[in-house]
Structure formats: structure tokens, C-alpha cells
Amino acid sequence: MFKDRHLLHIYAIVFIDVVVGSIIGPVLPQFVRGYSQPQLWLALGTSLFLGVQLISAPLLGKLSDTYGRKPSFRISSVGTFLANCLLLPVQMGMYLTNRLSDGLTNGLYATVRSAITDISPKENLFRNLGVEGAIIAIGLVVGPAVAGILITTLDLTDSLEQVRYVVMMAVGLSALNVLLSFLLRETYRPANRPNSADISRAELKTELLHSLNVSSILGRLRQKEKEHPGLLKLVLMQVALTGAIGYYHYFVAYVSLGPLQMNTKDISYSFMYFGGLSVATNYGFYGFLADRINQRRAIFWFAVVGAPVLAAYGLVGTSQVWLYVIITIDCLTYSLIQGLIEGLIAHKTTDTDRGEVFGLNQAMQGLASFGTTLVFGALSIIDLRLPFVWFAACLAFVAWLAQSGVNEPVSQ
């Protein structure tokens, strides 16, 4: 696995992309401070970023099946770079514009999973997709760590200065990812791949209209279900899981504005702990266990145990000790579900529709993210703890969906 330089190149792009996203996470509350109901503005930014993927993900995924994966990597990396530049003026309007523009080109992970599946032997698929999860966890450690080291080393005490320096670091790293994306070798070359000059506006317009039509997305998924029986249930499982892990996007608002009143450094340390533990659990689980067990049964039990853990986040009060206890259990249970579902979906794709399937899946995740953001934003107005009831209910639904497949054989 680590001898494959092509795979390492893809992992490096993923790693830097996650670092860029996580490095700015702890400073995002600064963009909305001073406004009434700041948690709603943070939720609106999140919903813009994730909801617009309903358009971008299937479009970029379909285009990657037609023209190869490399163009999608390039578009995504350039889009992230330009979007981060918009954050340099520390203003809420620019924050919302950043979320919208970054989301429009954020088809990266549909393309990443397609590319990894392209070059992975079937016996290594769960492991390689699981290592992608571990790489993401490492990025979650390094991002806040870099932010914390930068703030500490430069002795930045003014909150606006902290934001500007962190954003400048994110801009520099996203520029590096642009370079890596342009240097990436292609993982998939369609048999009748057209030249870039042959890409017509009419073709792009047609794909865009398909992506804008939610009923069209559902219709395409139903068609894929006929070709790959069981795919639709896995996508619905992913949708429900997206509702549950919406707490990732709510976490900063909750711990900074709720009873814990955590500052930028405290938030960075919690991300570092979560990421560090996730690295160990993801690598151990996906490196040695995931391809040897019944994946659906594992999803079921992780979800059953994880639902009350999610609800417990809302009961930590002012105790950071209990917060870290819950994070620990979190990393050992439902945080492992994502890679299992992705691996099962990957097994139900072919070379010719891989990008489309992962793109449609990411679009549905974007729709679910948009919906769950509206829900937890509304619930947070009533009580900052209430969103965790919603997150726990979504995870319980994952367990219900997985229950019917617990006796299916291990995927090979």
C-alpha cells in the first residue's frame, strides 16, 4: 500500500485538503462574533458549503467518468484556493461567500474515492479506503496543531490577528495542493475519452441541469439500483449517517458558545485529541480487521452503541473531562462507520460509472447535510443541547437500516 507512489500522491492531496479545512475551523466563530444568534450564522455557512454539493458533486463525478479523474482534482483544488483567499478580510459576508464558492467546486471526495477504487485490488479496497479515513484523521490533528503552534509562536493575542495568520497559512497550503493536483497522474482513462477541446457547452449544460434536478438524482440512483442491487440502501444509510455526523459541523459552535465556553486553543486541543485517537483506531481497524469481518454487522453494532454516545455530548455541562471521555468512545464506535459504507458502495461500482455513483452519493450527502444543518440550527435556538438528540436519532436510523443486512456475507 505505502509502496504505491500513486496512492501516496492521492493521500497527500487528501491530507493537505483536510489540514486546510481543519486549520480554519477553530477561528470560524470569530467571523460571526458580535451578531445575534451567532450559531445560526455558522450553521448557515455550513449549509451553504454542504448543500451546494448537491449540484457540484454529481456534475464533477460524471465528468470524471467521461474525461478522467485528474480534471476534477484540478477544479477542486483551484476552487478551494480561491475560496480561502476570500477569508482574508475577516467579515461575515466573506465567510458566507467562501462557504458557497468552496462548496461549488468541492467534488474532491467523490473523485478521491473513485481514484482509490480505480487503482486498488478488490482485496485491498476496504483497507485503502479506510486508510483514507486515517489520513483525514491525521489532517484533523495537524490542522488545529498548526493553528495552535502559529498563534503561540508568534504570540498572537488579538483575535483578528489570529484569524488573519491562520487564514494566510490555509491559503499557502491550498496553493500547494493546486500544484500536487496538477502533477497527479491519471487513474482512469475512458475508452473513448474526448479531448478537452471537444467538451461542448451543451454537454456541460446538460450535466448541470441533471445535477440541479433533485428528482433526476433520485431517478439516476434508482437506475443504478437496478444495475447494482443493494446500492440504494447503502446510499440511504450514508444519508442517515450524514445527519448524525452533522455534529462535526456543530461542534465548534457548541463548545465555544455553550456551557464549556472553550477558546481557540482549547478547541484546537480537542481536535488534536480526536484526530490523534482516530488515526490509531482507523489504521488499526481498517488495516487489520475491516476486510475480515461482516461489515454490515459492524455498522449495526457501532451505530447501536454510538447513538447514546452522541446524545451524551449534550450532557457534558462544563466538564471538559467528560467531553474527552465521550470523544474517546466516539472514536471507537460510530466514527468507524463511514469507511465501511464507502467500501460497500465501492464494491457496487464499475470502471465506467464509479465517478457517477460516488458523485450521486456525495450529492445526497450534501442534501442531507443541508437538511441536518437547518434542523440543528433551529433546535439550537431553543437549547444548544437539543441538536444532539437529532444526531442520535439519525444514528439510530443507520442501525435500523443496517439491521436487515447483518447476516450478509463479508464482502470480498
Describe, in short, the structure shown.
By secondary structure, this protein is mainly α.
Describe the SSE topology:
Elements: H1 5-24, H2 38-51, H3 53-67, H4 70-85, H5 92-104, H6 108-119, H7 125-153, H8 159-183, H9 201-212, H10 214-227, H11 231-244, H12 247-257, H13 264-288, H14 295-312, H15 320-332, H16 337-346, H17 354-382, H18 387-403
Alpha-beta content class: mainly alpha
- Low-pLDDT segments, ≥5 res: none
Secondary-structure element order, N to C? HHHHHHHHHHHHHHHHHH
Tell me, rounded to a whole number, the average pLDDT: 83
Percent helix: over 70%
Oligomeric state of the chains present here: single chain
The major pleated sheet works out as: none
Beta strand count? 0
Terminal Cα separation, in Å?
18 Å
Radius of gyration, Cα only, in angstroms?
20 Å
- How much strand? under 5%
Outline? globular
Annotation field: number of helices = 18
Report on the structure:
The protein is mostly helical and 412 residues long. The chain has helices at 5-24, 38-51, 53-67, 70-85, 92-104, 108-119, 125-153, 159-183, 201-212, 214-227, 231-244, 247-257, 264-288, 295-312, 320-332, 337-346, 354-382, 387-403. Helix 6 (108-119) packs across helix 17. It is globular, with a radius of gyration of 20 Å. The two termini are 18 Å apart. The model has no long low-confidence stretch (mean pLDDT 83).
